[in-house]
Amino acid sequence: MQYLDTPQPQPPAGGAGKYVGEVAAGYDAKREQNPKWLIEQKVITNMLADLPPDTRVFDCPVGTGRFLPYYVDKGFIILGMDISTDMLRQAAQKVDPKRARGELHIGDVRDTKLPDKSVDAVVNCRITRWLSPDDCVRMMKEMQRIARDRIILTARVANHPHARTLELFQSALRDDWVLARNEAGAALDYRILLFKRKA
Fold first, then answer.
1. Which of 12, 137, 158, 193 has the most crowded CB, counting CB atoms within 10 A?
2. From edge to edge, which strands make up the β-sheet containing 147-156?
3. 199: pLDDT confidence band, cut at 50, 70 and 90?
4. Cα-Cα-Cα-Cα dihedral of 146, 158, 135, 194, to 10°?
5. Distances (CA, A) of 133 to 12, 73, 138, 176, 184
6. Whole-angstrom Cα distance, residue 191 to residue 198?
7. Closest CA to 148 of 79, 198, 76
8. In this structure, what DSSP letter does residue 185 have?
9. How many angstroms separate the CA atoms of 63 and 27, rounded?
């Protein structure tokens, strides 16, 4: 696994830009025993479990790389992207670089710069609250452009100041994509969604 540490300005303070320094270093320890985290881990890995080795997975925001050990054990090729260099540095330490295949680099989920249909599966965990409704639609369109098979995302869909409705995500679907699974997270209003490309 290669961490491409190109000079980039850190995101602005506050909001999604807060994941720097000590916040990035302590991110996992603060969350990994939380029921929300544990359910996400179980459901998302289950949604990827049927994929074969050499599957190309795009994970954005990859954050501290919580799913990287799973990807490595499955033999996946990883493309991890985040806006925080500090989070990416944490992610790079998660796996043995001799076993991991892929790259980690700075980028934007709304405009990845990746070629069309260049990955098999996408994981967008804990991103929607940091995006406006319009940017959630942009993200969904971009993920459909780059993905060949499936898109997994998490979202609060109701009863929250940053809720993004299920209808919002479905409105962004092209005709060749469908919502295949809609699983509850730690609360009924927090959903883990699997969109699949029609055969």
1. 193
2. 2-4, 101-106, 77-82, 56-59, 119-124, 147-156, 190-197, 177-184
3. confident
4. 0
5. 20, 35, 9, 22, 21
6. 21
7. 198
8. -
9. 9
Mean pLDDT on 63-80: 97
Q: What is the pLDDT of residues 6-54, one digit of tens each?
A: 544 445 555 656 556 665 455 565 566 688 999 999 999 999 999 999 9
Range of weakest confidence among 22-26, 60-64, 155-159: 22-26
133 contact partners, CB below 8 Å, separation of at least 6: 164, 168
Residue in the block written with tokens 């992610």: 91
CA angle 128, 176, 67 (to 5 degrees): 40
Helices (H), the chain: 21-25, 27-31, 35-48, 68-74, 85-92, 133-146, 166-171
Inter-residue contact 144 to 151 (CB < 8 Å): yes
Per-residue pLDDT, 8 = 47
What type of residue sits at position 2?
Q
Give the length of the chain: 199
> What percent of the chain has pLDDT above 90?
79
In 3D space, the residue among 45, 191, 58 whose CA is nearest the CA of residue 121 turns out to be 58
Mean pLDDT of 121-130: 96
CA separation (Å) from 36 to 43, 61, 125, 133?
A: 11, 17, 12, 23
